[in-house]
Structures are given as structure tokens and as C-alpha cells.
Amino acid sequence: MSAAESYVCDTLPAPKLAADHDVAAPRRAEPTQEATPRKLCFRHQRMADEGTNLKLQQALDAMPLDDRQAVNAIWSSFSSSSHPCRALILQGLLTMCCFSQLSLLTEHLAHLIRIDPFACFPREVSLKILGYLDATSLCRAAQVARRWRALADDDVLWRGICEQHIGQKCTKCGWGLPVLEKKRGYRPRSLSPPIDRPQSSKRAVPEDHEPGPPIKRQRSSDESEASSCDQASSCVLLTPIPSSTHSLTRPWKDVYSERMTIERNWRRGRCTARTLKGHTDGVMCLQFHESLSYPAFPVLISGSYDRTVRVWNMETGVELHTLKGHTRAIRALQFDDIKLITGSMDHTLKVWDWRRGKCIRTLAGHTNGVLCLNFDSNVLASGSVDTTIKVWNLRTGGAFTLRGHSDWVNAVQLWDSNPSARTEQSSVSLFDVPGGGSLSPRGASCSATEIDAGKMLFSASDDGTIKLWDLTLRTCLRTMTGHMGQVQSMKLLPASDCDGDELPVDVENSEEAARTSQPSEASSDTTRSAPSESPADTTTTLFPNRKKAVLISGSLDNTIRLWDIETGKCTRTFFGHIEGVWAVACDKMRLVSGSHDRTVKVWSREEGKCTATLVGHKAAVSCLALGEDKIVSGSDDADIKIWSFSG
């Protein structure tokens, strides 16, 4: 193929030479043949659209006739030349140019050489190219031109970026954004202002208490009070909000921007704090829900040393209910859509209809105060000052006791180690059905087959250990040691919320943990023996291949520890608090802790460093709850603080 045939661009014809006699006596128009379509490259097509040749023609007409003929001859010769000839002519012309002409060329070429690719590409190709950019680059691209902005703001691009970051950590940039899936478009607000009540003086330390670390919390009272209920508040909690017939959607870029703002605030420690006042003594436990079917506003429930449970509209800070019935301090609570279960130092657990503010049932079985509890659809577990753990079967009403700790049991946490083994007998507990059967605290008739296989329980105690129990076998599988003080709190991060990356093992504690994390001799009050296996075989048998969950514990030795639940080894230790850690909470994005030093700390779980320290409480921070855009903390100063990072 010749060089001339390989050149596919038919350059726009040079401006015609306008002769004087052409102007005076124009020729008679002759019939012309239909011109064949011209092949133009992108640049010459743009020149045709912009009328560049018309401007050149006007400049040419302003020149003398001889100069016009000479220039026209050069243009015509160059236009009819092949591509190699054009290149040779240009090289020759460049050698003849002085610096002034080269400067002129540079000035013009700087503009002519620019090509807007999105002006010539189909929209689908343009979006494919922009799909390789990150969020920052897309925002910069949107500032180039209106055409670029229309492409860079396309919902398809930003939906992909949201899917890459929201609810998980991006593998490229390492950032993860909160889901905020349950943020509601409509939330009725109460017009009632928050209720301020006077605070009581700080609790007195018992005379027989020995000096040392932060004291065990204990309080007693001989008074018994009946529960009360405010009718108007009950109506608010009992009336479902009609669902909207249509849903409003926002651009994905706005969704990403909102969540990025929240994540930046988390990382920089920027937040606003609100205080809920109502309790007259230290707040010992709390929980909030933002995803209830109704009411439309988020609900917070707190328990205190003042022997009351209070239900709050967390959005407005208004107290909706005050539940009274316990005769001593309330140390633990948990609630769902239907019920609330509380544990108290009066040795009992109470089940409440928290929407109506009524006590449904009282569970007695412990011989001393109840410090912690945890329940799911089938099982309720509670830990006590009497060093035992009660496991209540919510399907059958039976119960049994686990013994093994030598001091107070401060935290319990249920865990489904094998979710596929979950049976479908009943997903409704006895407490969810009015007039349901009674529970037997000392009943040994509760057979192991009535609890799903793989149902495990973690327990933490003042004896400094964490134990793992198999509720089907009713035996202790492993004892984890490493803390130098009482273990006060514990949270389990499910495997679905873990990134799957193994954390570096804490070498200082790995050998000790390996020696001590062996199957224990502790047992339940119904004697059972586990099959004899080596530690390696036990790990393989009890935990089938799956993602690893992570256990997090806080202790009065001022540290927070992360544990590999399959090996019982401490994988990381967090240092930062200067006094004992009373409470920990975590999700897939971060870890938070509350301490006797009156601070709340936010930690990066992967990096092991503190990213923010929140100061505001006047006494020890005794309990915490973590949301995607907020932290709720309770303190011995009787206040509840809501730390909002939503901007």
C-alpha cells in the first residue's frame, strides 16, 4: 500500500483565492456532480464545526493579490501531499523558522493539540474510562467542564464506589464507610424538652473495702417500688408509623459524600456531645436501637444504681418510661423489638414489656447479684456475684448452671460457632408469647439436644480469666489468661464483620496463652465429660473451616486485648488508658472503650492505635454502646452522653 493510500484524512480544502475579476463578474453556476463524502479526522471535523477556514479566508482576502496567490499555492500543495511529504515539508519549515515563529507555533499548538476525549467517545466508553478513577479524581474531573461534570456525576460510577467502600474496607485505599442503612426519612419529633433532675452525691465506699484498683460496684436497698407507666409515652411506643407508599432516592454521590463526612469525623475525633439527665445515681448499663420496626425514632434504654430503668427517645432526649421494680442496683440489660430483660443486684432477672412499661416475669435462681446477661432467640445466659452462670432455655423453660470461675462473673457472650446447625424448632421464645411457660432455674431436665449444636458461651470474670463453654456439652472447652486484673467487659466481633486478615500475634503473651488455653476441668451442675482430645484436635473438631471471629476484652489492668478464639492466644494488646477499663464496644470499623479515667477512647483495630479521646464525664465511664455515627456512654456521674459524629 502506498503512503498516499494509507492517509485516511481528506484535509479541509484551503481557502480559495478571491480574484478581483471574480468579484466583479462572477461565473455562471454550472451543474455540479454529487461530491463524495470526505474522510476527516477528529481535529479537522472540529475545525469544520468551528469555522476555522472562514477566518483564514478573511485574513487571506486582506492581503495583496500576489501574496494571496503565493500563500494559496503553498496551502494547496501541502493539502494535496501525502503524509510522508507533509512531514518532510514541516521539518523543512521548522528549520527555516526563527525563535519568533517557533514561539508563535508553541502558542498555537498548546491549544490545538488538546483533544477532549469525552467529546468524541460514546457515553458508555466514557463511563468505562471514568470507572477506573477514585472518588477524589472523579470530583476533580467534574470541575473540568460541564460535559465532564455530567459524566463524572453519573449514578453508575458513584454506586460502584459506594459498593466498594460502604460497609467494608476498600482493598485499595483502606477506607471503609458506615452503612447508615436504617437512617429514616421521616422521624416524628417530640415537643417535650428533656427533663433535668438533681444528681445525688457519689456512692460511699464500703468500710471493709481494701484500697487498690477501682472498687467492685455494689449497692443495696430495702425499699421496693412498683413499676410506673406514662400513658402518653406508651401510645408513642405502641403506635406503628404507617410506611410510605413511595421511597425517595438520592444521588449516589450524595450518599457517598454523607458517609465520607462521618468517617472523616471519626478519624479526626470531631463530634458533638449531648447529655441526657434523669438518673439519680451511676448509670451501669445501656443499649440503643435505631432499626426498630416502630417507633420511627431511635430508642435508648439505661439501667442505674438508682434501681430504675429508663426508656428514652434518643433523638430528642425525652424520657418516655421509668420502669421500677428492682430493689437494688441494675447492672445489666438487653432488649429487642418485644422484650427487655434486666439483671439486678437483688439476685433476680426481670422480663419487661418495655413499650408498655410493665414487668412480665421475674426470674430467680442466682444466690447473689446478677452482673451480666446476654440472650438470643433461644438461650438466655446470666452471670452473677455467686461466681456461677445460669443458662436459661427459652424454648423449653429449662435451665442449668455452669461452674468454673472463682470470682464474680462480669460478662457473658453467646456465640453460634456453627450457624448451619441451627434448628428450626421455634424462633419464638417463651417471653414473646403472653402467658408463656415458666422457667425452672434448677431444672436439670433440659436435655442438650434442645440447644442448637455449636452454641457456645464466653464468660469473663474477676478471677482474670475468660472461659469458653460448649452449651450442648455443658463443659468448659478453653480458659484464656493474660490479663493482670479483673476482666470487666467483653465483646465478640462476628466473623462476618472481620476483614479476614490475621492480626499479628502478641509474642509477649502467646507462650503463656498457649500453656493456659487448654480444656478446663470446670463443669456444670449436671456432670458431663467431654471426649479426650489433644489441643490441636480439639481446635480442628470444635471449629470447622470458616472465617475467624475476634473476641475483645477490657480489664482493670488498664488494657484491652484481642483474642483468637480458635487458639486462645492474645493477638494484640491496646495500651492508652491510665486507669481500669470498664467497658468496650466494637464493630467492623472501629473499637471504643470507657475507663475509670473518665475518658472514652476510639481505636483503630487493625493498627492498634488510639485515634480519638473523648473527654466530658466527671466520673468513671461504666458502660458504652457503639453505633455507625455515634457513641453512647454512661457514667458514675449519673449522666448519659451521646457523642455524634454525623457532622
Give structural notes.
- With 647 residues, the chain is α+β, with helices and mostly antiparallel strands.
- The chain is 23% helix and 27% strand.
- The strands form seven sheets. Strands 10-11-12-13-19 form a five-stranded antiparallel sheet, with no helix packed on it. It has a four-stranded antiparallel sheet with strand order 1-29-28-27, with no helix packed on it. The protein has a four-stranded antiparallel sheet with strand order 2-3-4-5.
- Strand 24 and strand 25 form a beta hairpin.
- The two termini are 67 Å apart.
- Structural class comes to alpha+beta
Terminal residue distance: 67 Å
Strand content: 25-35%
Q: What is the count of helical runs?
A: 16
Q: Tell me roughly what share of residues is in helical segments.
A: 10-25%
Shape, per Cα inertia axes: elongated
Radius of gyration using CA atoms only: 37 Å
Strand order of the largest sheet: 10-11-12-13-19
Number of strands: 29
How does the major sheet shape up?
5 strands, antiparallel
Low-confidence sequence ranges:
1-7, 17-27, 184-215, 218-229, 500-521, 526-545
Q: Residue-averaged pLDDT, rounded?
A: 78
Secondary structure layout:
Layout: H1 3-6, H2 20-24, H3 42-50, H4 52-61, H5 65-79, H6 83-96, H7 99-112, H8 117-120, H9 123-130, H10 135-141, H11 146-152, H12 155-165, H13 231-238, H14 252-268, E1 272-276, E2 283-289, E3 299-304, E4 308-313, E5 318-324, E6 330-335, E7 340-344, E8 348-353, E9 358-364, E10 370-375, E11 379-384, E12 388-393, E13 399-403, E14 409-416, E15 455-461, E16 465-470, E17 475-481, E18 487-493, H15 507-516, E19 523-524, H16 535-542, E20 550-555, E21 559-564, E22 569-575, E23 581-586, E24 591-595, E25 599-604, E26 609-615, E27 621-626, E28 630-635, E29 640-644
Helix pairs in contact: 12-14
